[in-house]
């Protein structure tokens, strides 16, 4: 399995959105965090900004919705052309119905789990998703430290996906850097969100390359 590197633009210079996207052009996908100040104690942006990232057409867009009532709001993100739309299971009323609607609208679908949410209750519905997002920080802010106690959950998720023989990715988000990416990859993650590690690096493109090569050896093993 090839690793996917998804820089999070949460803390980039939003006044120069296109320039910032150009900086990360060598990544696989742009991770765009939507926060509503209800599901998480922070507010970022909504559909119009995400739509302009999609329309800039520099990279495909992975929308991470940290919002209440994704059943109501998530379909709009698929409609504007996001490549993948990830919603939190803690906020969704009908995750399977929503996943099917997002697929019908043409996007890939991710299911996100906060650190205290276990994967076990969702093992039987893994087949409805393209990606499981194991949060490795409490969602809401960039620049936090990777919660190492999430490693067993990544492992359990990879094991469940393997047992069911499904083509489901595992994304990790929060505190992913050159210091932590290998342990996440070794545990079974293949899709890596990195915000500060990329945007605070001296050279974003070479940091992306480095993260990709650190992950690759482990990803090829699963
Ligand atoms: C946090 C967001 C992340 C955040 C990651 O709730 O979901 O995508 O931007 O930032 P870093 O990589 O700095 O932890
Ligand atoms: Zn995110």
Write up this protein:
With 222 residues, the protein is of the alpha/beta class. The chain is built from eight helices and eight strands, in the order βαβαβαβαββαβαβαα. The chain has helices spanning 17-23, 47-56, 70-79, 95-104, 151-164, 181-187, 196-199, 204-219; strands at residues 4-7, 30-35, 61-66, 84-88, 108-113, 131-135, 169-173, 191-194. The protein has a single domain (4-219), classed as TIM Barrel (Alpha-Beta Barrel). It is globular, with a radius of gyration of 16 Å. Bound molecules: D-xylitol-5-phosphate and zinc ion.
- CATH level-3 fold name: TIM Barrel
Mean pLDDT equals 97
How many strand segments? 8
- How many structural domains? 1
Separation, N- and C-terminal Cα atoms: 6 Å
| Order of H and E elements | EHEHEHEHEEHEHEHH
Poorly predicted parts: none
- What coarse outline follows from CA principal-axis ratios? globular
Under the CATH scheme, the architecture is Alpha-Beta Barrel
Our Rg estimate from Cα atoms comes to: 16 Å
Major pleated sheet? 8 strands, parallel
Beta-strand fraction estimate? 15-25%
CATH superfamily: Aldolase class I
Instruction: Provide a count of the helices.
Output: 8
Bound molecules: D-xylitol-5-phosphate, zinc ion
State the secondary-structure class: alpha/beta
Major sheet strand order: 1-8-7-6-5-4-3-2
CATH class value: Alpha Beta
Helix content: 25-40%
């Amino acid at each position: 399995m090839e690793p996917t590197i998804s820089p999070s633009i949460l803390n980039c210079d939003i006044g120069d959105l296109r320039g910032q996207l150009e900086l990360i052009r060598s990544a696989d996908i742009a991770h765009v965090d939507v926060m509503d100040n209800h599901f998480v104690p922070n507010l970022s942006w909504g559909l119009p900004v995400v739509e302009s990232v999609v329309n800039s057409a520099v990279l495909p867009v992975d929308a991470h919705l940290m919002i209440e009532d994704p059943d109501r709001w998530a379909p709009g993100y698929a409609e504007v052309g996001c490549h993948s739309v990830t919603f939190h299971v803690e906020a969704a009323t009908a995750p399977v119905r929503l996943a099917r609607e997002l697929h019908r609208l043409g996007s890939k679908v991710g299911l996100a789990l906060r650190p205290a949410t276990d994967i076990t209750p969702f093992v039987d519905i893994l087949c409805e998703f393209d990606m499981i997002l194991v949060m490795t920080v409490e969602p809401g802010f960039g620049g936090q430290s990777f919660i190492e106690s999430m490693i067993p959950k990544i492992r359990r998720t990879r094991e469940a996906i393997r047992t069911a023989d499904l083509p489901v990715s595992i994304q990790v988000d929060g505190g992913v850097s050159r210091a932590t990416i290998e342990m996440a990859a070794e545990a079974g993650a293949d899709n890596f969100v990195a915000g500060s590690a990329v945007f605070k690096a001296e050279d974003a493109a070479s940091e992306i390359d480095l993260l990709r090569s650190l992950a690759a050896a482990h990803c090829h093993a699963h």
